[in-house]
Amino acid sequence: MRPKIEAVCQTMAADLITRVIPAISPTYHQGTVGMIASILSIIGEEWDRAASRRVEENDAIRKLFRDAVPQVNDATFKQRLSAMSETRDHDLHISALEKSNCELRATLIELHAQVESQPGPEARGIEAAIWKELRDSTERRRLSTAQF
Amino acid sequence: MLSLEKALAQYIQLKMPAAGQVRVDQLEQISGGASRQTYSFRVSYREADNERERRLIVRRDPAASLIDTDRKIEFAAYQAFFRTPVPVPEVLWLEDDPRHLGSPFFISVEMSGFQSAPARMLMEPYASHHEKIAQQKWSILGEIAKQDPAQLGLVGAMEAVAPDQCWKRELDYWEGVLDSDELIPQPIMRAAIRWMRRNPPPLAQKISVVHGDYRTGNFLYDETGRIHGILDWEMSHLGDPLEDLGWSLNRVWCWAHDDRRGGLVPREQAIAILEKASGMKADPAALHWWELMACVKGQGIWVSSAHAWETGDNKDPILILSSWALMNSQDRAVLELMGQLP
């Protein structure tokens, strides 16, 4: 779509803040419009990266699962982890990517809890890799307007 | 159906039978916390042959809110702290009967002419007074911690908790919120919760009133940097006073986009002010735990706001914005506290 969606969202957000808000009252409604402008701005920022960050993250978690499989003791979980590591994102709709992302992250929680309770350098290695991925995940999602 | 102005006038007339010709006007919705609809208004009446007027605030329960809270506890907290070193507005009437205004509510005296918005505090003339505001902000928090809940009359109004159970009650509650309301899995919060259960904090050094949402944005200040009122006691309860300190230091309140907590002063300075004012020591390990608790609680609120918007009738944009804008920052705050950020 042209003009680009992110530019449209950012421009409309700026219009709301600079032209609409000063022209309306009461203050409460100014606040509401300000929040809508901020939401538009977030949509604009998120638009372009929405698919790529999910694909990148899903692949990173699958790789983590592949690496972790040899260290998992529970046979059922091991099988599930292995199966999930072999999945692929064929449907690139955001809704489909989000669904697989949620499934992968839910399983990542299970894996993280398991390796935390295991001794040994291999478990610590997987744990460190999980923390790295969690750190990367917050960088992928980070907004330019975030306080932190 | 009566307009809100007329319904308020009728209600105030009931509460002030000696007053005549009660009228309500200048009704305006204002931002007043996330969990209630808040309106400012003027009430005029005749009393002993004199015309009188007051500016009041009504806080009414909405259909669904960001935070599920008990207005009786909020009302009791305002009553308890009125005319103490903790500045709060005077509350007048608490009403549970929804017939009057459509839902339960309470009415308080308006403290007019002050600011509360964090963004405003970053601008002049307020920006020149950050040290002064911080000094009062964390000193008042010290005063809250110093007050005896029994002497305040809040022991019956707020649920009792043993010093060794403060942490568990809060963690159980907010983990439960994540369990029931999360729309997407929260691996960082879940890791934090597991760590917190393995490493509980020491006994609370005392049981005090915990404001529950003590942060920049929930107090009124003027252009000389003086704080006039502490607001939004809707999550107040009895507990470990370090809970409020941890919440006030939460990274998501770093409004100036730097390390200054509450957009005001560095973390260590805020802690020092609180310690001096309260006479307490903020044990570093215990405070670290409560700062993590603040992250879990924060995420619980952002998650439940997203849940409320998606599943309920309340489509207020604050439910979206708080969720979208703060969830990732809250995750990063956990990473920082757990030593996982470079």
How would you describe the overall organization of this protein?
The complex is a heterodimer of chains A (148) and B (342). Chain A is mainly α. Chain A is built from five helices and no strands. Chain A has one domain. Helices cover 76% and strands 0% of the residues of chain A. Chain B has 342 residues and is an alpha+beta fold. Chain B has two domains: 4-109, Phosphorylase Kinase, domain 1; 118-337, Alpha-Beta Complex (Aminoglycoside 3'-phosphotransferase, Chain: A, domain 2), CATH 3.90.1200. In chain B, strand 7 and strand 8 (227-230) form a beta hairpin. Chain B is globular. In chain B, 48% of the residues are buried. The interface between A and B is medium-sized, with 32 and 33 residues.
Largest interchain contact: A-B, 32 and 33 residues
Strand order of the largest sheet of chain B: 1-2-3-5-4
* Total domain modules of chain A: 1
Please outline the major beta sheet of chain B. Answer: 5 strands, antiparallel
| H-E order of chain A | HHHHH
Give the CATH architecture of the largest domain in chain B: Alpha-Beta Complex
What would you report as the Rg of chain A, rounded to the nearest angstrom?
A: 21 Å
Mean pLDDT of chain A: 96
**Which runs of chain B of at least 5 residues are low in confidence (pLDDT < 50)?**
none
Give the end-to-end Cα distance of chain B, rounded to a whole number of Å: 59 Å
